[in-house]
Design a protein that fits this description.
This protein has six helices and ten strands. By secondary structure, the protein is α+β, with helices and mostly antiparallel strands. Strands 1, 2, 3, 4, 5, 6, 7, 8, 9 and 10 form a ten-stranded mixed β-sheet that branches.
Length: 257
């Protein structure tokens, strides 16, 4: 069994250290709301963050006004704003460090372990990369509790892959390892691993109208473009599609496998 570095940042249920005193708890919620306001402002505003995170616009406004956040919403908002979860939750660390985790806990028991493959192919956060193949891989064993409680990932159809290129900076940096869900329940605006005419890429996908999918980069030096919806398919289902969606990025790490 391949072991991964252990981290002690989270309790087994994925929650930061709890605050028991009611006054302290109220202060902590208000301070968290202030950090959320700062993160949302820096990430492009309420509408953009609500769209990317999947948190309803009205709910986001309530959180920013001081309502206590659900753990799942906090995870999604930290990802959407590209800030560390520890910083958003408790004010720890540097908000400019991004939301990449530097370690993954070790699966301590076989009942909690999930096998996740790491593929050698390196999708490009740039102008595209033709992979040699998707055959070479290694297996790692990650706690299911970590995936669900900390990352909000419940799918078993996931894999690791390292990216190259700078078109998704600052959300993703060259050399980052990403966790990809290759069987998401539905399509939402998010970052995906895709192929376009055989070129392997990591891009932000969204639907601007009922007929086209917009392929964008978070780095403003790269231009967005569109692909007709009828020329898009999921990987393995439509081999003739101009663009095939491999999976949605659900986690980002700075790891050396």
């Amino acid at each position: 069994m391949k072991k991964l570095p252990k981290t002690d940042n989270y309790t087994p249920d994925g929650n930061p250290n709890r605050i028991s005193d009611p006054d302290d708890r109220s202060d902590a919620i208000q301070e968290r709301a202030a950090r959320l306001k700062e993160a949302v402002r820096n990430a492009g505003g309420n509408s953009r963050v609500a769209s990317i995170s999947g948190v309803p616009f009205g709910t986001l406004n309530h959180y920013m006004s001081g309502r206590e956040m659900k753990a799942s919403a906090m995870i999604s908002l930290a990802k959407a704003c590209n800030v560390p979860l520890d910083w958003l939750a408790e004010g720890k660390g540097d908000p400019q460090a991004g939301n990449a985790m530097t370690s993954i806990p070790l699966a301590s028991s076989s009942t909690d372990a999930m096998e996740v493959k790491f593929f050698d192919a390196e999708p490009s956060a740039g102008r595209g990369h033709i992979p040699d193949d998707w055959v070479g891989s290694e297996s790692y064993y990650v706690p299911r509790s970590f995936l669900s409680s900390v990352l909000g990932v419940y799918s078993k159809k996931i894999f690791f892959v390292r990216i190259q290129g700078d078109s998704m900076k600052p959300s993703l940096n060259p050399g980052d390892t990403i966790l990809v869900d290759y069987e998401p329940e539905n399509f939402v605006e998010a970052v995906y691993v895709i192929t376009i005419h055989g070129l392997l890429m990591v891009k932000r996908l969204s639907m601007k109208d009922p007929f086209n999918i917009s392929i964008g980069s978070d780095n403003p030096h790269y231009q967005s473009f569109q692909v007709p919806l009828n020329r898009v398919g999921w990987m393995g289902t439509d081999m003739d599609a101009d663009m095939r969606i491999i999976g949605r990025v659900v986690g980002r790490f700075q790891l050396n496998f």
